[in-house]
DNA sequence: TTGTACGCGTTATCAA
DNA sequence: TTGATAACGCGTACAA
C-alpha cells in the first residue's frame, strides 16, 4: 500500500519547490516549459490527484449536496434520488443521503449532522411529522447560516427557498376528469389527512373537477386516511380495506375511485375483487404516483405520473446553479413539474 | 449570516491562545478549571462545532462510506441502503451513494470519484456488466490502495475482501421444495443467464431440490432470461410473457413456477391469467426477493426473503469494524444471511 | 523563472 | 498552567 502522492512528495522527488509543482500542474506560464512537462509527466505517471479535503478546507466548499428524504424504500423517492444523482455527478457533486423515517426529530438531527459535514446545500422533502407540527425553525436556521435549501414535493411555502413541486391540484383534476369522462358518476376519493399538503391539494383537485361537471361532492365517499407511518410497510393495513369495503356497503353504486397514492389504489382493487366488481367494466380506478405497483398490478393502473426523476434533476440543477452564484441575489423560484396522465387498464 | 465559530475566533474573543481553547474544549486537565469553564461556556453559547474538514485533513479519515449500487429504484437495494444508513449513522458515519446503472464503466468512474472524495471504505454490489466481463482490476486496485471493500449480494469470490451474501442455493432449494411439497410435479424455472452468479446459484438450488425428490430436470421448462438492463423499466418486456406462454404451449401440464425475481413471477402470474389458470389451485408460484410487488400482487406471492435491511446493517458494521481496527490483520469474512420463506397466497 | 510564506481549522508536541 | 509551533495538502500573493 503505497502512500498517496502529494505536491510535497513530487517536489521532493524532483528537487523543486511545492509551489513550482502546484503551478506547473495548473499549467501556469510562469513555470518553464521544461519543468512543466517534467512535472506533469511525473504527476501523471504516479497518478497524482489533488486532495479534495485540503481543497475543501481552503475553498470552504465540499462539492457535496445533502439530501434529506422521509423514506428511501419508496419508488417515488428512489426516482428523485436517481435524478439528483444524475445531475450532481454531471457537475462533480457528491450526494449524501439521510433518511428521516417521517420523524421530525430525525430530520433536525440529520440536518445538523450534514451541516457539520460541511455540505454545500440541501435538497429535501419534509417528513410528515414536520408537516404536522409546522415546526420550521431548523429550516430557517440553516438558511440563516447561509446554506441554501431546495425543497421538493413536500414543501412549506412559508420558507423562503427554491422549491420543486408537482401541480397536485391540476393532476388530481385531470385524474378525476378522466373518470368523469369515462362515465363515472360516483367517485370515491381515497386521500390522506389535510395536514399533508399533497393530500389537501389533491382533494382540492378532485373537488374542482366535480364542480366543473356540476357534480355535488358527497362526504360519504371521501375517505381521509390518517397514517403517520409508512403504510407500505405495515402488515396490518387490512383495516384500510375494511374501511373501504364499508363505504361500498353504504354506497353500492360507486363506479370510480381516485386514490392519491398507489397503495390506496391497490387496496381499492382488492376490495373490488372481493365484491365481485370488474375493473374497469364496473369500476374505474385512477391513482396518483406512477410507480412500480401501477405497472405490475392487475389490472395495471391508470395513474398520474409525477416524473420523479425529472423532479430530482430540476432540484439538483437549481441548487447547483445557486451555489455557483456565490453571492445570494437571485430570487427564489418555485418550479412546477407537469404531471401526466398515463392510461392503463384500470379505466375504460 | 454570521461567520462560523472557530478555535481562533474563540481564542481572540477570550484573549487566550488557540491551543488553550483546544485543550479546554477537550477538558484537558492542563488547563485551569476557571478557564475550562469559561471557554466551554463560551463555545456552547456560540454553538461551536469543530470543523470536520480540518479534522479529516489531520486524521486522514472522513467518516464517510462510499456505496456503489447498480440501481437505486429497486426495492431490494433500497432496503439495503436503509440498513447501511442505519448503522452508519449510529456510528457517526455518512454515506455517499453512487449508482452504476449496471454499467462497468460507471462503476469504475464512480469508484475513482469516491476515492478522490476520500471515503474511508466501500460497500458495493457489482454491476451486471462487471460480472459479465469479470474485470476486477478496479476492485483490486482500490484494495491495494488500502481502502477496504465489503461486497454484498453480487460479489466476486476471487477478490479478497469481506462479503455479505444470501444463501441463494439454499433459498432456492427451499422455494422449490415448497412447490414440490404442495404437490407440484412440473416446475417451470424462470432464471437469468449464468453469468450472474445469483442466477446460477438459484438454478443450482432448483436442480438440487429436484434431485432430492428424484425428479428429472427438463430443459424445456428452464427459461434463462438474458437481460443486461433493468427489466423493470423496460416497456417492451411483453417478449418475456410471450416466451413464457410458449413454454406453457409446449408443456401444458406445468403446475408450479419458481422465479428468481419478482418481475419474472409477476409475468408468470399474468400468463396464468391469460391461460385461465387459477393460482394457486392450478398453478403455484414462488418468487425470490421479497419486495413490494410480492406483497401487493394478486394473488400475493409466496417468496424467499433476502432480508435486505439486515444485509445492509451487516455490511456496514463489518466495514466499520474493519475501519476501527486500523492495522489490517483481521481475516476477511463471508457472512451468509439466512433466507426465509414467506408464505402468501400464490401457493397452496 | 522559481521559491518563500501564509492561511484554511484542528491537534499534538514542546517550550515557557 | 499556558502558548508558540509544526503538521495535514493545497493555492497564491509576493519576494527573490
Automatic annotation (TrEMBL), chains A, B:
Q: Which GO terms describe its molecular function?
A: DNA-binding transcription factor activity; transcription cis-regulatory region binding
| Chain ranges of the HTH lacI-type domain | 5-59
SUPFAM superfamilies (alphabetical): lambda repressor-like DNA-binding domains, Periplasmic binding protein-like I
**One protein family per Pfam:** LacI
Sorted alphabetically, the keyword list is: DNA-binding, Transcription, Transcription regulation
- Tell me where on the tree of life, at the top rank, the source sits: Bacteria
Q: Please list which residues make up the signal peptide.
A: none
Question: Which InterPro entries does the annotation name?
Answer: HTH_LacI, LacI/GalR-like_sensor, Lambda_DNA-bd_dom_sf, Peripla_BP_I
Designated name of the protein: LacI family DNA-binding transcriptional regulator
